[in-house]
């Protein structure tokens, strides 16, 4: 049940962020992402691992989407409020944070196979931006479009590789103990 709640919950965040941004408001995605991240951290077996991954994913979004925006290769709907340093809009950074919460929940199969994660990022990253973000009016690419899609493909492949490896390692290291500690004196 948690698998499906995580998977469906992330999709709700994604559509809320993209549709909200396409209609001129970053806040639906930000609010939905905050609720999703808090809820998933609450039920997580390894909340510290999940929240660390949120921070790393947020930085990946700052770099990938920030550089894409700063280069002028893409324009995001509702670009402000944006973090002034990077130019990545807050709604897309919220999506990165929410996406991080899937690795130790609905994406465990991918998490434990970093090469597969990188391949999915290589293909799925640009498709998500082009197919839905662009189609819903949440962003637009400057020609030649292949340049932006190549940037997204390479960036997402590297981000997925990094996030898979860190998620797997941190989930094992920081898993919340279940039950009494072994060796404890009664």
UniProtKB/TrEMBL annotation:
Entry-linked InterPro entries: DUF2878
Keyword entries, A-Z: Membrane, Transmembrane, Transmembrane helix
Keyword match Membrane: yes
Pfam families per UniProt: DUF2878 (PF11086)
Presence of keyword Chloroplast: no
Transmembrane segments: 12-39, 51-76, 82-103, 115-136, 148-167
Designated name of the protein: DUF2878 domain-containing protein
Organism: Achromobacter seleniivolatilans
């Amino acid at each position: 049940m948690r698998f499906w709640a995580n998977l469906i919950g992330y999709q709700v965040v994604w559509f809320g962020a993209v549709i909200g941004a396409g209609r001129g408001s970053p806040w639906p995605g930000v609010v939905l992402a905050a609720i999703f991240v808090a809820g998933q951290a609450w039920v997580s077996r390894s909340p510290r691992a999940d929240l660390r991954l949120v921070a790393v994913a947020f930085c990946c979004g700052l770099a990938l989407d920030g550089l894409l925006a700063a280069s002028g290769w893409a324009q995001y709907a509702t670009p402000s409020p944006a973090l002034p340093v990077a130019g990545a809009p807050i709604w897309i950074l919220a999506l990165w944070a929410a996406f991080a919460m899937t690795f130790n929940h609905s994406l465990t199969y991918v998490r434990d196979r970093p090469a597969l994660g990188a391949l999915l990022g290589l293909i799925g990253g640009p498709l998500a931006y082009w197919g839905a973000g662009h189609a819903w009016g949440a962003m637009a690419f400057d020609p030649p479009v292949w340049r932006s899609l190549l940037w997204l493909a390479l960036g997402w492949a590297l981000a997925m590789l990094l996030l898979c490896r860190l998620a797997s390692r941190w989930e094992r290291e920081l898993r919340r103990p279940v039950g009494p500690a072994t060796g404890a004196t009664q």
